[in-house]
Amino acid sequence: MKFTLQVAIFLSLLCTASQAQNTLYPTPRNEPKSPEFIEETQPETTPVSPNVAEANNIAPIVETELSEADVIVGQPIRLQIKVLVPTYMPQPPIYPTIELPDLMVRLPDRATTPTSERRDGASLSGTIRTYRLYPLAAGAFEIPEQVLSLTYADPDTNAPITTEIAMPAQSFTATVPAAAQDLDPPVIAAGFTLEQDIQGEIDLGVGDAITRVVTARIDGTTPVLIPPLVTAIETPALRAYPKEPRVASTEERGVLSGTRSETVTYLVQSDGTAELPEIKIEWYDTETQTVQTASVDAVSLTLAPAPPPPPDYGKIALRSGFVLVALGLFGLFLRRMGPRLAAARNRIRARLRATETATARTVRRAIVDQDLNATYAALETWSSYAAVLDTSDWIDMKNALVSVGSDTYSDSPTRPNSSWRILAQNFDELRKINRNKYLALKTQENLPKLNSNLNIPIYLSTPTAEPVER
User: Fold this and answer.
1) What is the mean pLDDT of the chain?
2) Which InterPro entries match (predicted)?
């Protein structure tokens, strides 16, 4: 039982492999079996099947067929070449080249497909190759008889046989529809559009450039049929520099389309006005069977006036002389008025320095530098702006100064920095008291005069600190 199951599985795998090998070029079902197989499966007296005998007598077949006899210019027509053999082809046929004037030949995707037929009771296998032919002009086209080379297996021995077979001739006619007879050139398509792109400003000066890019798209046929788009104009104001046209084609589901793009750069030579002309192309719509018009607008350009005349060197020299005289007079003025201007500047600076804010800044700087003598001098100057203060207001400041002097000229272990910091805080507080009292008296319009004979207790009652001998 187990042995029988293994044999069945082996035969099944062998059959599957044989079917996969013969997918593209299948072996006909009536192919004669090998002698060994006949001896094992059939008695010696069994006669040969008539179909096998007929297949042995069938030669390879090559047939050609056109999808239409008449076609519109630019529209595709299909040419099919069918190759059939009585057994199978171990390698694909070698097809001839199809070349005719005004005829574009394309092979679509999956142009070659396998096929099989029964003829005269025998099974034949082979391939079908499909070409798409695009006539580019009206007229009759004749594809001459050509030789096709193929290799197939001998029905008796399976040995490869190489032979050449004549491919039948075919002919068709390309015409232009009556509605499109007046089109020159005849643009016949399922769709056609025009677009333009202006690169640059339309207000130009001499030496400036502007670029015009015009693109045409065609559907249902080859872009080779798109005529030239831009006519390069030559005027005294503009010079044209065209580039080579760019043609690109695409194919989607067997439908051919494409674009043609033309670029022209215009260089301004002189002033004035110019216009890039309108572009119109008439085309025949195969879907509506009417003549349509695709167009892009004209572009008007404004060119700058001619450059100014050369300079008048006499006027330039005269103006330069005036400038030199003016500079000389200004220098003489500065020389004579310089001292006065300097004195006025010094007076302004002195006035700016003779303010409470400036003198208070001097006091703060002396405190930061920890210079006791400079601090006393700055406080004396600042006291002229503190006439509203009385003796009680100076008590904290007096104590801070005594502490600073003691730390500076004695062997006290106290750090001098702390006494200087306290002095700075007391000075800031004293300024606030001075400002508040000043504003209060100003409101009452009872301000004392500056530099009055008020006694400043810090200077009257505090002796100058003397260094302590160590």
Assistant:
1) 79
2) BatD (IPR025738)
DSSP secondary structure letters along 259-315: EEEEEEEEEE-SSEEEEEPPEEEEEEETTTTEEEEEEE--EEEEEPPPPPPPP-HHH
d(CA 235, CA 272): 11
Tell me what percent of the chain is helix, strand and coil, each rounded to the nearest 5. 35, 30, 35
Q: Whole-angstrom Cα distance, residue 5 to residue 10? A: 9
CB neighbour burial string for 17-52, b if at least 16 within 10 angstroms, e if fewer: eeeeebeebbbbebbbeeeeeeeeeeeeeeeeeebb
Q: Residue 345's pLDDT is what? A: 72
Are 176 and 241 contacting, i.e. CB atoms less than 8 angstroms apart? Answer: no
DSSP state for residue 97 in the 8-state scheme: P
Peptide bond before residue 185 is cis, with ω within 30 degrees of 0: yes
Closest by Cα among 396, 384, 467 to 427: 396
Give the E-state strand segments of 121-208 in sequence order. 122-135, 139-143, 146-153, 160-167, 170-175, 188-189, 191-199, 203-204
Q: Is the pLDDT of residue 265 over 70?
A: yes
Cβ within 8 Å of residue 228, ≥6 positions away: 245, 262
Could you tell me if 156 and 32 are in contact, meaning their C-beta atoms sit under 8 angstroms apart?
yes
Burial class (CB in 10 A: 0-12, 13-18, 19+), 223: buried
264 within 8 A of 199, measured Cβ to Cβ = no
Q: Decide the pairing of beta strands 279-285 and 188-189.
A: parallel
For residue 297, the 8-state DSSP code is -
Q: What residue segments make up the domains of the chain, in order of their start?
A: 21-175, 179-303, 356-460
Please compute, for residue 94, the number of CA atoms within 13 A of its CA located in the half-sphere on the CB side: 8
Q: How many residues in total does the chain contain?
A: 470
Within 8 A by CB and 6+ apart from 212, the residues are: 196, 197, 198, 199, 230, 263, 264, 265, 266, 276, 299
Specify whether the CB–CB gap between 360 and 375 falls below 8 A.
Answer: no
Half-sphere exposure of 455 (CA within 13 A, CB side): 6
What gap in Å lies between CA 153 and CA 434, rounded to an integer? 125
CATH 2.60.40, applies to 179-303 = yes
Retrieve residue 395's tokens: 């008590």
List residues bridging with 465 in a β-sheet.
none
Helix (H) or strand (E) holding 55: helix 50-57
180-190 pLDDT, tens digit per residue, is 888 888 899 99
Q: Is 443 helix (H, G, I), strand (E, B) or coil?
A: helix
Rounded CA separation 9/4 (Å): 9
**Confidence category of residue 470, pLDDT binned at 50, 70, 90:** very low
Q: Choose among 421, 422, 424, 420: nearest CA to 407.
A: 420
